[in-house]
Amino acid sequence: MIFDGKRRKPLFAVLPVREKHKLVQNEMRLWRAVLDRVFADAFMPFDLKDAEECEAHQEAIKWFENKENFAHVCEIAGLRDAVVERIWKHYREKSLGRGQSTS
User: Which of 36, 60, 61, 73 could form a disulfide with 41 if both were Cys (CB 3.0 to 4.6 A apart)?
Assistant: First the structure.
């Protein structure tokens, strides 16, 4: 679960960094936090009347759909893009099930 009410919990930033990546662990954690933010903006419940929240939601989905940027961020975050994409699809299905638009 990545959301507890309106508070988001990190999904990727808390994952351990492999020993071979210790020299770049701060950068990896930063990019993992970027992915966490994209997930939060895309899937955390938001107020349809709040233009800023709606824009953040739309931008998050648009960013994820840009596969080139997405794959690059996953790579520098030390994550496999196919795994992150499966997690994205899981949360997308859950959000559609509760009636939240994802586009």
Answer: 60
